[in-house]
What we know:
Layout: E1 2-9, E2 12-17, E3 22-27, E4 47-51, E5 59-64, E6 70-74, E7 82-87, E8 91-96, H1 105-116, E9 122-126, H2 134-147, E10 154-156, H3 165-172, E11 176-180, H4 187-194, E12 220-224, E13 228-232, H5 246-249, H6 254-259, H7 277-283, H8 289-299
Parallel strand pairs: 3-5, 8-9, 8-11, 9-10, 11-13
Antiparallel strand pairs: 1-2, 1-4, 2-3, 4-5, 6-7, 12-13
Helix pairs in contact: 1-8
The structure holds guanosine-5'-triphosphate, magnesium ion (MG) and zinc ion.
Amino acid sequence: MKGIVIKSTGNMYFVIDVDNKQHVCKLKGNFKIKGIKSTNPIAVGDKVEFEYLSDQKIGLINKIEDRNNYIIRKATKLSKQSHIIAANIDQLVIVVTLANPRTSTGFIDRFLVTAEAYHIPSVIIINKIDLNTPAVEKKINDIIDIYEPLGYKCYKASAIIGVGIKEIIKLLKNRVTLFAGHSGVGKSTLLNAICPSLNLKTKEISSFHAKGVHTTTFAEMFLLDNIGFIIDTPGIKEFGIVDFNSNDLSQRFPEMRELMQNCQFNNCSHTHEPKCAVKTALDNGKINTSRYTNYLNMLNNVETEEEEWE
Ligand SMILES: Nc1nc2c(ncn2[C@@H]2O[C@H](COP(=O)(O)OP(=O)(O)OP(=O)(O)O)[C@@H](O)[C@H]2O)c(=O)[nH]1
Ligand SMILES: [Mg+2]
Ligand SMILES: [Zn+2]
């Protein structure tokens, strides 16, 4: 039988078949997977084949289809191993808040770069606008000014007072969408606002400041009636990018991709080379400083700055 993995909890996989019927599966004993070294051989969104041996209640996954794309990160800060957050997605939604908790542009850019590797369209949802102070409002506008010209649409939202929900529903129509972001930004609350029958667990306001507590613990895919597939994920503290070499990195910045053919050297790293079109654009204000700084940090493998809390 064929199906799509909607959740994995270590060695158990929950798979839906073509009739949306759910099956509990394990990997077949001799199952091997080529390629990527990841802590999870099969991820949410993977298309698999499975079988039931006679009178068994648990299915056995014996094949995985090649992935169209996937979102991958380092399993832990210093790890050589990686973790696939989800596979075969149509778009990435990065949910951010500029306060409680604060999302840095470094974090946003790492996600965007990872999605650009497979040309996965990404959008940014700025949640909790009901809490805005004038200072936060300014930061939000700065974010919009950076990302919208690059083709990353930004949506202002409040899951609590119901702002932006209609637009987000439109965005999700007939697509497979990954919801990602720090813990506590309101991913699950937003998804509940979109589809109340989902009834996802969210953090109680009273325990909201408890450090290191993730409310969502496994990535899980849901089919929202008349909307599309969405994947809710546990919050991520830091996003370590994997799978890139420095020549590829600037290709994953749309604003650099456009200009780099004008650099004098075709292997220009846009750091110290003369007649670099990217550096010229930076000096002229055509490339945003924070984007360029984040590019350098990724190039030098510098982790994103510590977040205020988590
Ligand atoms: N004021 C305000 N609070 C919100 C909003 N959205 C979510 N919250 C609150 O933020 C807290 C965290 O929300 P969750 O939906 O659990 O966050 P999450 O991103 O799913 O977190 P993890 O599952 O840990 O990754 C909860 O206390 C929510 O009530 C919003 O738009 N405005
Ligand atoms: Mg959650
Ligand atoms: Zn250059």
